[in-house]
Amino acid sequence: xQSVTQLGSHVSVSEGALVLLRCNYSSSVPPxxxxxxxxxxxxLQLLLKYTSAATLVKGINGFEAEFKKSETSFHLTKPSAxxxxxxxxxxxxxxxxxxxxxxxxxELSVKP
Amino acid sequence: DVKVTQSxxxxxxxxxxxxxxECVQDMDHENMFWYRQDPGLGLRLIYFxxxxxxxxxxxxxxxxxxxxxxxxxxxxxxxxxxxxxxxMYLCASSFHGxxxxxxxxxxxxxxxVL
Lengths: 112, 114
Known about the structure:
Strand content of chain B: over 45%
Number of strands of chain B: 12
Helix content of chain A: under 10%
Order of helices and strands of chain B: EEEEEEEEEEEE
Radius of gyration of chain B: 13 Å
Largest sheet of chain A: 6 strands, mixed
Shape of chain A: globular
Number of helices of chain A: 0
Oligomer: heterodimer
Radius of gyration of chain A: 13 Å
Distance between the termini of chain A: 41 Å
Strand content of chain A: over 45%
């Protein structure tokens, strides 16, 4: 069975600092991996996805994630945090059928 | 733009009531999903459907049922609402491909069962 674990339910960074949100997955087949973001009172929107084309994936709003098979990880990073990045972030894994299994979520706070 | 529309943003129901949550998508997607979102638990899959009149159980189907009579509409039914079903419910849709398809989400329905 596939599963996702996000390390840290809350992460706080200062504006301009590096953002690192951790995600580890478990999958018996080559996975499809996703990061979604949820701004307050909104639905989820896709930040980026990995579908085996390249291990470093660039997404919207300056975010990127690196697929590391040996570590079963797909951590999300952004070099410089902005106040508008404050939101909840979800890592997810998908099978060939297309259903997504989500992690517990990480709430990112950005301090001025 | 793809639109996934959930009929209500906020809903308050009483214990034992039958509750219908409606979801409509306008992009001719084959796949539709219902998740519930709870703090600290992330999103958990309740039911999904890959085609009209077809449904599959997700990870937490107990206490729920679904209906998909038309391709664009996927309804979640709480046969007899209970307080532990108080939650945010999110509907999503996607194309049916070989995997890796993007899910499009609605804005969610916050259901309170009193």
